[in-house]
Amino acid sequence: MASQHSRCYSILSGPSSRTRPSGVTINNSLLETKSSQKCKLSQKRKTLPFPVSISGYLSPWPTYTTSQNILQNAKPCSDRHQKRTSSWQQEPFGIAKPRYLEQLENYLRKELLLVELSKDSAQELKLQPYREIFEFFIEDFKTYKPLLSSIKNAYELMLAHQRERIRALEPLKAKLVTVNEDCNERILAMRAEERYEISILKKEKMNLLKLIDKKNEEKISLQSEVSKLKKNLAEEYLHYLSERDARKILVADLNELRYQREDMSLAQSPGIWGEDPVKLTLALKMARQDLTQTQMELNTMKANFGDVVPRRDFEMQEKINRDLQEQLDSLRADYEEVRKEHELLLQLHMNTLKERDQFFSELQEIQRTSTPRPDWTKCEDVVAGGPERWQILAEGKNSDQLVDVLLEEIGEGLLREKDFFPGLGYGESIPPFLRFEGLVENKKPTKKDVVNLLKDAWKERLTEEQKERFSDFFFNFLEHRFGPSDAMAWAYTIFENIKLFHSSDIMSQFYAVLMGKRSESVYVNQKEIVAQLLKEMINADSQNEGMITMEQFSIILKSTFPFKKEEKILELMEAGGWHPNSNTTDLLTYRALFLEDEEGRNEPFVQRLWEQYVEEKDEYLQELKQELGIEFYSEVTLPRLRGALMSIDPSLDKQTLNTYISQAFQCPVSELPEEGDGKEDSMVVQLRVALERLQVIDIRRKGPREQEPAS
User: Fold this and answer.
1) How far apart (Å, rounded) are the C-alpha atoms in residues 517 and 546?
2) What is the pLDDT at residue 396?
């Protein structure tokens, strides 16, 4: 036993001069990266309550207590740990733990207790005490230091690798959430479309059921009419039978009276007694024989033709019977058709019920798993102005537009908090009026101030000759208004404001023109159209009362926009205040249609006019794409583009056509080749690029798609 103790002691506390096992290498780069950690660890070792050297404190204690756990993964202050501590403290002296092991356990317990008492008890912090204990082992057991260091380095590398993998999977998790939301939106759209189709099928089913009920009612009425006709026919037949019997009796009575009259005339005749009695007897006998034969023939005729009706009545009844038979055949065919339709409807109804149950189960599953719609009333207490202002901002807007409104409110608050803007530099991609390095002061104007400044800029731009670029004009305008020292600060301030507020028409349009996304001719022409409408309404107001009738309003819209469809005119009238139930003689305060609020928002009429212009431009470009009949990323030549434009809009004049083509090919009008020139085929442009360039300028229809023939 003593030899075993000495052998264990020699293994655990072998001399430091002992050679390292072959094949054990230490990652020098990893050890160098851990140098700072080891320095901190050496400082901690100085604060330990036991000496650095462990000589004299090692013992063969584990050989006697192999079934006991040296350290449990329990909380240092738990009752279970205290029970275990007291249990091994009560062990006999011969099998007590080494002092070095007790001190390490006490140190580990204190460190774990400090980590758990800290606010941020992350998993890395909980692992740090164990790392320090392992470092103590590595430093104290010089013989096994290379092996233990390689083990520790291997685990550290694996932990670092796992952290990198977790960090790499975080974007995939966010992408998965985004894809899940997109799929949910597509599923909701499909469900809405299917519900619409189900409602249409239900309406069609109800109409067919009503048609079946109507056919059944007609069938019942026809059956009742047939039974009534049969009853009338039986009554007429009995009446004719009684008339026939009465006629026979009457004929018999007439014959009897005639015979009696003849017998009386013979009896009263004076010359009858001069005849021979034998001859008379023979004549009487022959007469009686003839009478008997006639009576027999009469009885035979009665027996054979007693039930025969007159031919006229027979033909009449046969015609009636034929008509009734045709009606019956028609009703039978209708009934058979209705019966088949009824069976089809029943089958369709069963299929619809199955689909309804399936859709209902899917709807319940979607309702269980889908994200609830946002409660926009929560924004009332957050937006400045309270519920009243939020109701004004949210009126008539969908969820997407409400998000834009909320972003504008949040962005306005953040914009107010900024005192300076960072300069964007002097790069080629930076607009000329924003090329500056350093900090630029935020002037913090109100929305009203920005709108008034933009209106003044447009007025000055429209009065002067438009020779310089719009961005250069804008900066020159700011220098003239605020001086060269504050021009850059106002340029950054105005740019950040118009980039943020999309709900303001004048701000959004000024931003689009300033960034080159829209030609300024679009804004100018739109203003001219609005001014022309106002002028026409003023001319129609002969009494100068500021009011016109709805009929006059409709006539002015149709004369100003001759190529708009009827539904587009009705949309403009509804935006102006017309209702389907109102009369054409109702009056309209037309000047109120062209007002703007202090933040640059137009009335619904002008907004709808602008929206229709954007829609008509998109439809015009879509017709051009369909007329070309090529892929979106294919190339189109100049003659083909010219022919497509003339095909969809034959009323285009040459000057306007050349303007469109020069914009699509980014070539001056003066440099465009003439029609029929061989250079035309060499000019090509991608269809996508051409449509994007045409989207910038003021492109609109000049006439109908097909010209009407001259009368």
Assistant:
1) 38
2) 67
Q: Cα–Cα distances in Å, from 123 out to 112, 127, 129, 589, 684?
A: 11, 6, 11, 72, 63
Separation of CA 78 from chain center: 57
For residue 421, give the H/E element and its range.
strand 420-422
User: How does DSSP assign 181-201, residue by residue?
Assistant: HHHHHHHHHHHHHHHHHHHHH
How far, in Å, CA of 440 to CA of 430, rounded?
Answer: 15
Q: Is 360 exposed, middle or buried (0-12, 13-18, 19+ CB in 10 A)?
A: exposed
CB contact at 8 A, 437 and 492: no
> At 48, phi and psi to the nearest 5?
-65, 150
- Helices then strands, counting H and E runs in the chain, come out as 22, 6
Dihedral of the CA atoms 617, 623, 627, 630 (nearest 10)?
80
Asked if 179 and 53 count as a contact pair (C-beta separation under 8 A), the reply is: no
Q: pLDDT tens for residues 290-302?
A: 998 998 888 888 8
**What are residue 685's phi and psi, to 5 degrees?**
-150, 150
Q: What share of the chain is helix, strand, coil (3-state, %, to 5)?
A: 70, 5, 25
Q: Which candidate, 628, 607, 618, 633, places its Cα nearest to that of 687?
A: 633
Q: Which of 650, 612, 644 is nearest to 630 (CA)?
A: 644
- 439-441 vs 420-422, strand pairing mode: antiparallel
Specify the DSSP class assigned to residue 75: -
Q: What DSSP line would sit under 528-552, residue for residue? A: HHHHHHHHHHHHH-TT-SSEEEHHH
Low-confidence spans in the chain with pLDDT less than 50: 1-94, 272, 707-711
| Span 198-230, pLDDT tens digits | 999 999 999 999 999 999 999 999 999 999 999
Whether residue 153 contacts residue 27, with contact meaning beta carbons closer than 8 Å, is answered with yes
The pTM of the full predicted model, rounded to 2 decimals, is 0.47
Confidence (pLDDT) at 447:
83
680 Cβ neighbours under 8 A, 6+ residues apart: 637, 638, 639, 673
Tokens of 373: 């719609």
Segments in 561-603 forming alpha helices (H): 566-576
Mark 278-300 as b/e (b = at least 16 C-beta within 10 Å). eeeeeeeeeeeeeeeeeeeeeee
